[in-house]
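ok so I'm stuck.
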Amino acid sequence: MWIPTEHEKYGVVLASFRGTVQHGLPLEIGDTVQLLEKCEGWYRGFVHKNPNAKGIFPCAYIHLKTAHINNKGQFETVIPTEDSVITEMTSTLRDWGAMWKRLYVKNDGDLFHRLWHVMNEILDLRRQVLVGHLTNDRMKDVKQHITARLDWGNEQLSLDLVPRREFSMVDPDEISVTELFKLMEHRHRKKETPVPASTHHLFVHMKSLMSSNLGEELEVFFHIYDGRENRPLSERFFVRLNKNGVPKSPEKTERQCTLFVDLGSSDLRKDVYIVVHIMRIGRMGTGEKKNLCSVQYRRPFGCAVVSIADLLTADSKDDHLLKVYACTTESEWYQIHENIIRKVNSRYNLSGSNTGLAVSLQLLHGDIEQLRREYMVLFTRGVSITKKLGFSDVIMPGEMRNDLYMTLEKGEFEKGGKSVARNVEITVYVLDIEGQVMKSYVAAGSGEPGGDVYHSFVLYHNNSPRWAEQIKLPIPVDMFRGSHVRFEFRHCSTKDKGEKKLFGYSFVHLMQEDGRTLPDGTHELIIHKCEENANLQDSSCYLKLPFSKANLPGNNQAVKGTKESFWITSFLCSTKLTQNGDMLDLLKWRAHPERINDSLSKLKEIDGSEIVKFLQDTLDTLFGILDESSQRYGLKVFDCLVHIINLLQDSKFHHFKPVMDTYIESHFAGALSYRDLIKVLKWYVDRIIDAEHQDHIQQVLKATEYIFKYIIQSRRLFALATGGQSEEEFRCCVHELFMSIRFFLSQENKITSPVTQTQAVFLRTFPAVYGELLKIFTVREVAGFVRETLGSLPATAHAECPLEAVKLHCIARTVESQLYTNTESRCILLPVVLRLLQAHMQEQRDLVMCARILTSMLSLIRKYDSVATEPVVSEEVDLIVDSLLVVLMRTILEITNRPQPAGTNMRLQFQDITGEFVACLLALLRQMSDKHYQQLLQAFTSKDDLRDFLLQIFTVFRILIRPEMFPKDWTVMRLVTNNVIITTVLYLSDALRKNFLNDKFDYKVWDSYFYLSVIFINQPCLQLESFSPSKRKRVLEKYGDMRVMMGCEIYSMWQNLGEHKLNFIPAMIGPFLEVTLVPQPDLRNVMIPIFHDMMDWEQRRSGNFKQVEAKLIDKLDGLMSEGKGDETYRELFNSILLKKIERETWRESGISLIATVTRLMERLLDYRDCMKLGEVDGKKIGCTVSLLNFYKTELNKEEMYIRYIHKLHELHLKAQNYTEASYTLLLYDELLEWSERPLREFLNYPMQSEWQRKEYLHLTIVQNFDRGKCWENGIILCRELADQYESYYDYRNLSKMRMMEASLYDKIMDQQRLEPEFFRVGFYGKKFPFFLRNKEFVCRGHDYERLEAFQQRMLNEFPHAIAMQHVNQPDQTIYQAEAQYLQIYAVSPIPENQDVLQRDGVPDNIKSFYKVNHIWRFRYDRPFHKGTKDKENEFKSLWVERTTLTLVQSLPGISRWFEVEKRELVEVSPLENAIEVIENKNLQLRTLIAQCQSRQMQNINPLTMCLNGVIDAAVNGGLARYQEAFFVKDYIVNHPEDGEKIGRLRELMFEQAHILEYGLAVHEKFVPQDMRPLHKKLVDQFHVMKSSLGIQEFPAYVRASPVHFTNGSPRSSCRNSVPNIISPDGARVVARRSPLTYPAVNRYSSSSLSSQASNEVSNITGQSESSDEVFNMQPSPSTSSLSSNHSASPNVTSSAPSSARGSPQLQDKHKHSRENSCLSSRERPVSAIYPNPLDPAQRATPHQIGDTTLPRSDPNLSAPDKVRPTFSSWSLDSVKEVNNTQFSDSVGKLLCPPVPPRPPYSGSSAKTMRSQSPVPTSRSPQKSSLPPFTPSPTECQSAGLVSNSPVLSGSYSSGISSMSRCSVSEASGTEATTGDHPAHQGPTMPNSVSSGSDELIRRENKTPPPYSVYERTNPRRPVPLPHSLSIPPSVEPPALPPKPHQQRTSSMKLDPASDPRRADGVPQVPRPRPLPRKVSQL
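replied:
not stuck anymore, here's the structure
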């Protein structure tokens, strides 16, 4: 049975539990659980991170913890009863854990590892705290470390700043908002700007000396040196090194490490150095030989210097290798470091090239005690302390120090009868009063213990040595008196014995007879001569002698005049001894009473450090004098006391204030002093007004605090001693004193008056007196003193008066004093404080101080707010609200609207003051209750005042909500702010309803209210969904979801508006929409119905809700692009509003609006999801296209449409889709006209005219077309732009545009373009975005991208998609699946512009453009077997399923993929399939043979393989299988309808055999020797194949077929310098054919290709290799290309996809036919390669040629109409050209190619003409006739028709002139079909003869491309063939069979039934376009 738990309420999961049992709750290790019930070893409860999921789990998995239960029962909350730091640590580590894993995923390795170390460190510290064995101090340190690391981690992870007080988190509800702000600010400042340490320390670790010339022991001395003042700053650190250069005692770290302590900030500058002196211990000279002498001397070795500035930037210990220098002369040793610093190179040099001193240096900051904690290891291992010379910047009381530093400066010695100078060594002894040597009190420096004696170093042969060697004498204070220092001078001999001979001594006393120590400074000592063996043990024999020349009496001239002297410098650093006699005189005043006056006068001249040394003694002396002689010395003692008190104000002695406080409390005994002190103080105060000089009085008033301390303590001692006598007298004295003070304060003076400054001085010190007065007087009495004193200040003062600021500062200290904390005193002082505060805030003066005062006041109110003091607190809040609320809000408004100061410090101060005022306002509002709000609102006498107040407070609240109001990580502060705001708004909304509705309605107030509510809900800090689960839980528990509360309030207020709602429609639609997009279900349910209300009211007002719809659509785009909204919102919006409008009369239009908005949301959500991806891919582009079209077609939002055009353009540019980028930008270009209409600034466009913007767009588009190698489209825009320039006579730009156009022509002819692959992609399943779901697209692949690569790219874009492995259409289960399926296969493009592709003479690099551009339809073939499959011959049942896909737009376009609009499915029978296969193979063979003949093939292998594949397959049953399948009687009988097709198949088989025979002949000519056997085998197999086919002689229709190849006309073959026509009889004369002389229908001659074909090939090729005649016979290139009469059908040229596209029917060996299109111009196949003998009967005269080659026209037109030209802007002279045929002839010679025609601009009066051309006849029912021809860009289009100029260009004349040069010319054919084309009745073209140079010019100029210009309004309508494509008479055919589909009908008019876009012969309506598209539809 489940029993509710009593005490087992909280636990932690010890091990993970899967929860596989019934009702089991899965648990993860570390989860915290709340336990509800228990039953037989199982608990029931929930995990805190998901409290909604409850379940059971085993008890053994839970570790129970004690907890505190709140609200026991159903809604109880459980809080673990553990240390708050532990609780915070646990929850923080949980949050960090999840984020830490995300860091690993993001690959942020640095932070990942740092956080890992910190988390481990926190866990270790947590264990220490939980164990509970730490001392209080250690626990404090551990908690400090924990919180520091928690704060660091929170900062690194951008988490919230945690307010803490003594390491524990602070509950914001338990403290005032102002206190919370101060805590946050303190932590923020601590984080941002750490306080710089004022004390610094230098750590030095001596490691070793590296030198090649060691061998003696060394002494190393470090000290810090001031290069500016040329003096040492510290004592020396001394290290002994052994002969190897390493420390002698490595185990004692204190002997090699030191800390130079107490360096001030002023010591850290560039001219402060670390100086190192090195001495060696050994022989006198380094090069001396070793002798028996064991005496060793200290001799100079070297010096090193490093600047301390080099260490300022180093954070860790840096190892330094210091260069060691030596003196050039020993006499300069004393200043070697100065020479190194000053870089006097002549006086020192390197002691050795490899000599260096290895030391470790580190600069440490902070107090020495702090360093002991932070660097505990350093101090525990041992480190010597090297002190500063003198006291530190701050002298601490209790510091004990007594060090005498003595520097051996120099000496002057006589030779002493020697020929050379002496080697002088000084020996130093310290002797006590009894003459005994004091042990261990002579130290060379820190690091080594002191010794009994010190030996100086020796300078060789120097009678004037300068040592500058410092020693330290740490003599105890009690041993100073009577002690002296003796200096013994010895000459060190360099002889064998090495004796040290004594020759003199000096001495100096350390303390004078009057008790003063040896004064600091330099002392010249007398050198007393003595014998070598003199005994100096008895000091009494010389102590009576004089020791210093300065102290000699005047009559002792003998000693004074001696030359020998010794100089020392002494410096005493002592806290107990003094060198000042005046101080000693004062302290011994009783011994010399007559000196008291002088001593008191000289006290002010004594150094402060001397006074603080003897502070207590000095104070005792002063009060002793005051007690004994108050009348005589009272004033002087008072002045001395003031001097000492003010001395302690100095920062150097500031720490001695506690010493004085201790003296007053414990040692002061002047019980009668208060009378004299009060009397003197009053005397000074009374003299203030009349005194001329205020300086001394101001000094007195500065000391007021301590004077009152002495007064009060004296009175207490007196009262204690006398039992409280003279109380009234004392009170009277104090009252009189305050009356004097009030009188002097009440005086009004000038700003610069000294009295004003004195008033300011008193006000600064006055608050410090309150605490002393409270020791004797009651709280009310003291408050009265303060109120009356502050009230006596002059009320009217100038703003610039310094007294005003001081007044405010005094008030601030008053509010912060102990006096103000008492409620009784607050009642008395508050009015005074508020009055002064209000005056300053109204005038915006001293706002920083005002904020400080207000903060303190409100913090106190919260602190003492309890039940007992509630009435008093309520009264105080009343007073503050009445006085300051409005002023406070106005102040916040003014300082937030004021421009911020420029300086960084001022800006920080500005931000701080804003935050403080905001915190004050929030604290005040939080203190206000219902009663306060009622009183506040009732206090407004008029509606206008109330209105102004509401507007003001709403504005202030909006400012408080701003993100920049508080730092980013102050979430706690923001939540408190929002809680106060929403509470206040709930109070004020009642006032809004009561006072500003119905007839009193005020739009401005209501609008401000709604605006505030909206931005309140949208704050980032309230979006709980972005918080971690633990943080979200904490916020909800404390404040709830404040967004829902505010949303409910908005809805309630909206419902109260009634008819006034119309005032907010449509203005509030956007803000309310933004609110509904917040992902909070309750908020959405509350707010979405408001839109129904808006629709209803708008319907009532206007009869529709267009405004609502427009506003919704406008706002949705911006809001959703910001990341707001989701799919749930879309569904909720749809369902709620549909339900709301069910019963409305306007239901239909409402449903329409909702549907539109919902569809827009779908697209916007898809767009946003796609944009989140990193790289630009097809999904992004497709989504943008979908949204762009939706804005245009369904919403008609032009501005949004244009914005998305540019977004799409940017996407394309990023993806380097330059062609698509151009088409996209064209959409905007087409919306503009060539007008001067001004356009506003928009997107990145400046303000400009429409013409300028369109020009800019044109240039940008052309540039992108150029980059995308879509030059044909760029030329069209160049022409259009050139027309504009020409119309404005802007010839400069016109010239540039023509040159640009010409460059594009050159690129077409010279640069290679790759043909892209096309892929059909199906997106199936509900998981795809809306714009892709269950749709199929055709995609244009990237360069070199094949099917496998494309499929992989699509799977990368859709990583969750499943690739379908079949090409069948999916069923409904796939469509409806909750998954993603991709179906991808390659498709073949069906070009629209077949006339260009079928025209001979057009280069491949031009054709390649039309093969893959402007493609609407694509094809895919799938082979299958129908019926039973014949295993012997599978061709019998091999059908092909042909799928044709039609797109909504042509490719390329604004996207790389477009949706499939229509699918057409046909089945191709086995017979038709066989026909297509053989046609394709024949085409491939022709191409390879042509390439081989034209030498375009590097080797003959492709031709060999193709021939082998066909012939060998034939042997194995290739063509024979077709014979067996379709030529048998059974098939013919069963399929009588296929008779014509069977005949066609037979023709193709014979044609293939004929091509093979010719191919073998060509192959024989070029085959290499090693492949001859293969060739012979192929010839033999070919004969077998012919016999198997039953071919003995080729039929007449095969022999008579003309030659036609797809790769160009005979002219193109001539351009490639190869023969174009081969004569079977070996004739060398080659007939050339103009493009204008191609026959309409030709018959073949009876000649056939036999074994002599190889000889013919040999003859021709031999001719081409050896003679220039071929070049002379080549025709000139023409700018007009004619289409081939016998072009291959589209099914042949582009139907079957290559194997790379995944075709099931073509093998890999067929691939190269597609790859030929990628070849360069020299590698591409030529058109005519088969020989064609010319029949003399068929030759024509030049006149006949001229007649027959003119363009054909419609026979139904009259003759004048046929020759009328079209006047277009591109013609050189379109009117005259018709009549000037000679001019046209010259044009043909000189202008190759000519300028293609341009589209006409408006106003062209060109008449339209329709030229006709035959249409190919369909050979099978499945094959449709040729699609409608697309006009060339060389044609002008107007009024829906094609207007073609029949004007002759150079192409015609050049064609005729080339024929006229031939000895044999071609004649027109005499076939019956020519009768269908009557001769043109216009003038004939004259013949002209071209020179060889003309031929060369024409050869070098390539044929320009025929561009396809689609009419802008309807690009896909059928267009008749232009004049240039009219059919010339036939000529004699060559010997090879024709290409398939060569037959053309005689009529140019298209049969409606033949158009593939028409059904049942009915003309199809042109495809509708969403835009009036122009070039973009190309």
